[in-house]
Amino acid sequence: MDPISRRRLSCLGPRREVPEPWTVLVDLLDLLRHRLCMDLAWLGRVDGDLLVVQMASGDLGAFGLSLGSSVHRDQSLFSKVLCGDLPSLIPDVQAEPRISSLPVVAEFGIRSYAATPVTDAAGQVYGMVGCVGRQPCPSLRQRDAGFLRMLASFLTEFVIDLRRLWDERNAVWRQVREVLDAGGPRMAFQPVADLITGQTVGVEALARFPTGLPGPEELFADAAGAGLGRELELAAVRNALRVLPQLPPDVILSVNASPATVTSELIDLVVNTGTPQCVAVEITEREEICGDHEMLLAVDELRGRGTHIAVDDVGSCYSGLEELLKLRPEIIKIDCLIIRGIELDPARQIVASGLAKLAAEIGGHVVAEGIESTAELDAVVDARIGYGQGYLLGRPSTDINQACLGNRRPTATPTGERTHRTPARHGLRL
Question: Can you give the pTM of this predicted structure?
Answer without folding.
Answer: 0.69
